[in-house]
Amino acid sequence: MTNEKNLIKKYFLPLSKNLESQNLSNDAAIIKKSSDFVVTSDMMIEEVHFDSAINPKNLAKKILRVNLSDLASMGSSPYGYLLNIGMPNNLKEKWINDFCLGLSQDQKKYDLKLFGGDLSSSSKIFLSVTMLGKIKKKFLKSKSTANSDIFVTGNLGDSALGYILNQKKNHIKLEKQIVNYFVKKHLLPSPRLDIGRRLIGYSNACRDISDGLIKDLEDICDNSNLKATIFLNQIPLSRNAKKIKQDIEKNTNFWELVLCFGEDYELVFSMDKKKQNIFFEQNKKLKTKITKIGFFSEGSGVEIIDNKKNPISFQKIGFSHF
Amino acid sequence: MTNEKNLIKKYFLPLSKNLESQNLSNDAAIIKKSSDFVVTSDMMIEEVHFDSAINPKNLAKKILRVNLSDLASMGSSPYGYLLNIGMPNNLKEKWINDFCLGLSQDQKKYDLKLFGGDLSSSSKIFLSVTMLGKIKKKFLKSKSTANSDIFVTGNLGDSALGYILNQKKNHIKLEKQIVNYFVKKHLLPSPRLDIGRRLIGYSNACRDISDGLIKDLEDICDNSNLKATIFLNQIPLSRNAKKIKQDIEKNTNFWELVLCFGEDYELVFSMDKKKQNIFFEQNKKLKTKITKIGFFSEGSGVEIIDNKKNPISFQKIGFSHF
Fold first, then answer.
1. Per CATH, which fold does A148-312 belong to?
2. Helices and strands counted in chain B (H then E)
3. CB B267 within 8 Å of CB B212
4. Which residues contact B169 (CB under 8 A, 6 or more apart)?
5. Do A119 and B321 touch (CB under 8 A)?
6. B170-191 burial by CB neighbour count: b if 16+ within 10 A, else e?
């Protein structure tokens, strides 16, 4: 592999042709006070978040999109990012080339600038992205009110199913086309930036679902001192998820997987009943599905109601690294 | 170990009591457009930048100070940071407690806020910090002119010597007090924030010495299309470094170590001859040593002149991870 300076010049400098990075000539990037900002940071570690067989182009896109999803949950617009990479010395240069191709494609897609970062050797691949987004004065808060309903964007669980079906040891036999659908949903989330911005002024609490709906909702409940009640029969599932539900249920608690695995990168948000008519009237042409799944009330915690109107609970709520 | 959410609540939330982080209740922190910013990011990886025996309090301070040094080189003032930590599941909670104590002490010392971050399990300890600093309209650039001299702050090489002496396998026998002096210089750099700010309007190129004087100077030369000439007999050494120079030279190229190892976290900067009188007149009470070590001229690359006025070169210029 060529040395550090040459790698940066060859692969990362072309991604950093912007005023803020000053062609990476300084120790830090310059951010002018043109607007308020949000700043967020997420990492992905080999053998924890992905395995070494992952396609580097997809990996690059995923680390960006995971951070973009945080911007979406704040109603913010993408601005730029810093990228820290630790990688093994024996990694092929083709890997870096493909990784940077993924960065380049998503920089264009999401109008995102590379501001700088750090490159190091490491026994395992380690990625850390810090992303800046621009916001208007109003931004999405994370405190709901008792008079609000709970909504989610898109479908839940597709990413979790993709993770399971991507494991070599899974015993579920399905058509290749269906497996590919789910694996793609796991590898390439679609951050809900447009909806996030549309929610400004309407939603009083919004998060992206990274740790599982239940855990992310619990956080909103904690912040708001409220109880959330959600209904299983209102949780939006893709056609494909409905199709394979029975197969999955042979080995796995389907609903626990859908509601607790995480990595959906959909938005869960609350909206006061009074604001819903005007919001949905104004956004009736929106292509992304928005589904009401429950409501907030006085109390605490998340209550899950099954199809027979009984409260249920799961063994493991959300992913914890420790 | 307690789970992720509890760890954050117990150890990191108390460090994040600021408006920007909103008590970590959102997916991102909010930065108001009160001034222009610089933003920089650096990482430290177990077995690459430190070994597992390192005192966690010192490790926390070092990852902050490495980033603070980047702010210093831009003439910027500390504002806040995001912290990503990957750490083994079996790490003792005492480790986290001590690590956070180090963060807390340096947050106070440098007037720094924790804005947020990410926590994950990982086979090795992985740290990534992204730091924001405030700047005035003018900031330190990295392009020198041919009419400028080259200066450094403090002494060079103490950190490199500390690294060598801290290795268990080194065969150099010295008084414990002297060893401790160097090891401390390696573990706890002192970012030159005050001098960085004073240089605004006077220096036309400034970098912090992280990769070794020669490599960092080469970067300024590249940016400026200039040649740097420096003189070994003008390189500032600590009294202790002078004392052990002969011992070190038995096994190692002393000057290569001092000029190429890096991690000094001193500033190397250039200043036009016309501005030097007024700068040094205004800063004559400055406690930190500033030493002229050479000059810029038309040409390219770094020329090193030894005590006999002969140009010399080193085998390995600066640290490259690849």
1. Phosphoribosyl-aminoimidazole Synthetase; Chain A, domain 2 (3.90.650)
2. 10, 12
3. no
4. none
5. yes
6. eeeebeeebbebbbebbbbbeb
How far is the alpha carbon of A231 from chain B, nearest alpha carbon, in Å? 25
Domain B148-312 in the same topology as domain B4-135: no
Rg of chain B, C-alpha, whole Å: 21
Q: H/E element holding B116?
A: strand B113-121
Residue with tokens 């394979």: A244
Does residue A30 contact residue B38 with C-beta atoms inside 8 Å? yes
State the Cα–Cα distance between residues B217 and A9, nearest whole angstrom. 17
**CA quadruple B132, B207, A5, A40: dihedral, nearest 10:** 0
Closest CA to B140 of B25, B28, B271, B251: B271
Residue given tokens 């909702």 in the structure block: A217
Among all chains, which residue has been given the structure tokens 């409905």?
A: A242
| Location of structure tokens 């106070």 | B108
What are the backbone angles phi and psi of residue B126, rounded to the nearest 5°? -130, 125
**A70–B28 CB contact, under 8 Å:** yes
- ipTM here: 0.90
What's the pLDDT tens digit per position in A123-164? Answer: 999 999 999 999 987 777 778 899 899 999 999 999 999 999
Predicted confidence (pLDDT) per residue in A231-262, tens digit: 999 999 999 999 999 999 988 899 999 999 99
Which chain B residues touch A82 with a CB distance below 8 Å?
Answer: 39-41, 130
- At B58 the pLDDT is 96
Sequence-ordered list of residues with C-beta below 8 angstroms from that of A277, at least 6 positions apart, any chain: none
Domain at B4-135, CATH from 3.10.310.30, 1.20.910.10, 3.30.1330.10, 1.10.10.10: 3.30.1330.10
Task: Write the residue in B89, B135, B321 that is nearest to A121 by C-beta.
Answer: B321
Instruction: Name the nearest CA neighbour of B57 among B106, B91, B17.
Output: B106
Classified as helix, coil or strand, A127 is strand
How far is A99 from A64, CA to CA, in rounded Å?
A: 11
For range B30-44, the mean pLDDT: 91
Asked if A118 contacts B41 with a C-beta cutoff of 8 angstroms, the reply is yes
Q: Strand A77-87 vs strand A113-121: parallel, antiparallel, or unpaired?
A: parallel
Pairing of strands A226-231, A301-305: parallel
A301 Cβ under 8 Å from any chain B Cβ: no
Residue entry with tokens 């400055």:
B286
Domain ranges of chain A: 4-135, 148-312
Asked whether the whole model's pTM tops 0.80, one would answer yes
Q: Which two three-digit tokens encode residue A189?
A: 């989330």
